[in-house]
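Researcher: I'd like a structural prediction for the single chain below. Treat it as a standalone chain; there are no partners to consider.
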Amino acid sequence: MNSTFMRTPIGLLAIRAIDNAISHIAFVDRQDAPAIQHPLLVQAREQLQQYFAGQRQAFSLPLAATGTEFQHQVWQALARIPYAQTASYGQIAESIGKPKAVRAVGAANGRNPLAIVVPCHRIIGKDGKLTGYAGGLERKAWLLALEQG
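Model: Treating it as a single chain, here is the predicted structure.
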C-alpha cells in the first residue's frame, strides 16, 4: 500500500492507494508511514488541494474502497449528493431502496474509508442538525461551510 499525507486547514489527511486506485482518505493525528510520491497519490493531493481552495466540486479519482455490498450501495448514494447540498440517513436509505435501513445506512456512512471524496460529511440528521462524523463535528461543520461558500 502506498501512502502520502497532506496538511489541510482542518488537520492532517492520510491518503492511501492500492494498485491503481485510492483506497483510504482519512484524518489522522500523525504521519504513520513514509510518504510515497506515487503519481495517483500526487493526483489525489492536487484534487484535494483544489477542493480546499474552493476550486473543485467533484473528484475524478479511481477508487477502491473495501466493504460489503450494502456499504458500497450507501457509499455510491453518498457520492451522488451534489456539492453544497445535504441529505439525511433516511433519504439515503430511500435512494437505495431500503427505506427501513436508516440505522444500517448510518453505520455504513460511519465506515466510509474515503473522506471528502465520498462526501459522508454531507449527511445531516432529519431535523437538519449535524450528526456524527468520523473526523469530528467541527471538521464536518467546516467542510459544509466551505461548500456553502
